[in-house]
Amino acid sequence: MGVLPPFKPYVKKQKGLYLLGFAGSVFRFLIPLSVPVVIKYVFDELLQNASVPNGDKVRQLLFITAIVLAVFFLVRGPMEYVRQYFLHRANNNIIKELRTDAFRKIYTLDAKYLTDNKSGEIGTRFFDDIEKIRGYMTAVFSNIWIELTVLAFVVGIMFSLHFELSLLAVMLVSMQFVLAHFFSKRLKSTTQQMMNYRSVLNGFIFEKIQGAFLAKLFASEKKDKEELNGHLARYEHFTDRQARINALSLSAVNVLSDAIPFVVVLAGSLFVIDGNLTLGALIAFFAYVDRMRSPVSALVQAFPAITEGNVALRRVFDFMDTPVSIKETEFPRTINEVADSITFRKVSFSYRPDRELIKDLSFTLRKGKTYAFVGESGGGKSTILQLLTRMYDPDGGEILIDGVNMKELSISGMREQIGIVTQDSFLYSSSVIDNIRMGSLEAEDAEVFAAARKAYAHDFICALPNGYETELGERGVKLSGGQKQRIALARVFLKNPSVILLDEATSALDNESEKLVHQSIQEVSRDKTVIMVAHRLSTVIHADRIFVMRQGRIIESGCHNDLLTADKYYKALYTEQNSTDMSVA
Ligand SMILES: Nc1ncnc2c1ncn2[C@@H]1O[C@H](COP(=O)(O)OP(=O)(O)OP(=O)(O)O)[C@@H](O)[C@H]1O
């Protein structure tokens, strides 16, 4: 039974614990197997032996009982503990290591993979698949080897009792394995389809939980239920097929299992009649044939767990082997700040090969200045920030930080220099203070409070039930959009990076708060590069340079006044927004 090659190192690390477990197993299983031999002795050598006086027989019986019980309680019992404990520990260690590695992998995955795959589908590998591997390990490392050892031992004793009868028993048992193997092959493809579909189902459920608010608003419950029923019906189709193959396999194998001892004892009786076998030996033989049933049925029942485990192992290692395109060079350069400039040189990029989004883009951003990208929706503004944080690499051209191609820099070191606030900033389910402290884990409380003041968040935080210690629900649902944005801003102010990226970062604030927050941004950004993406042009009029984007190209750039004077697309946009604002006012 081959173990998947990438799984081998995990198993090897637990070799010591497995050996202890196996040692415990050998004693725990082999001790009860010696009992039929003792019974044979009692029958043939003691009870049926007329030359031994009855008093001696009683004494010998008591002695044998004492020895057998002592071995059971003093050896077999403790060995059961050793077996269970060490094998579980080894299995648990492997599960823990697999989960740790899978978790680490999540952090290396490309942004593309994370947006293309639903979190529920990724989570399935982390939970369900890894649990299936536990079932596989229990079957393969805890049960199969010991059951095979027991089987070999039983067969060995049987052959020592009677050769022909043993041959018959082995032939009949082999038929059980052939049947089980036949069914397990059919089981494999169904299991694979079922497990793949379970990922889809989990992805669907996770997404619906995340979008539950929206579903209520749009009263889409009926449609979602229909979709769920469709998914469940497909999933049931696979589980049903799996159940049918399992049931067929077990019924065929169990019929044989029940019939074998009967057939063997009948055949054995013929040998007793011929005087070829003693009655005690036949009774012992029957006991051993019966004992064979347990390892055989354990092995046969292990087939589904092994099949599922193998599929799960492949899914988990496929995930771990997901190719990563955003990689560091062998000797990445580290930077302590963005000292001078960020340059896009003839950058082009597309998310999909058939649709080029950014075309031949070139510009330079200098330290200490504020830049803004504005323009039509879908024009590629946020994508520029994605490229700047190296979530994606350009298809053509290069991005230079202080003259060095970004690809040559340490990714984490480069991201250390960048702080980002987006329209929908993610907050963790932890306290407000912990959420802000993500910006700088070593920051003192006073520094956190100062950052919150700069983001105009301090007052509303103090008014929360537990102030800075208030726990935020998943995705910060207890806060308003504007409050979340100010916490995300405080996080960036605390981080104090060289480059600040603001993607509609103040869009949820009222006009007054937005003005104050922008004053803060201007104050902290004197020695930084600030890059803003905004629709409301009133928030970017102070920028040193505004880039106007359309269909992935910069069509105009300059300061607010220059762009108004140029009287082109920007001016039209600005005039349109102003007139809308006036009419709303
Ligand atoms: N992860 C992604 N995978 C595939 N396509 C994407 C992805 N992110 C954005 N796009 C597409 O790329 C285009 C540009 O998106 P981008 O978010 O950069 O535009 P934007 O100018 O910031 O728009 P908006 O002002 O509406 O935020 C859009 O058509 C969008 O559908």
TrEMBL record:
SMART domains: AAA. It is found in: Cell membrane. The keyword Transmembrane applies. GO terms for cellular component: plasma membrane. Pfam families: ABC_membrane (PF00664), ABC_tran (PF00005). Keywords: ATP-binding, Membrane, Nucleotide-binding, Transmembrane, Transmembrane helix. Residues 19-308 form the ABC transmembrane type-1 domain. Belongs to the ABC transporter superfamily. This is ABC transporter ATP-binding protein.
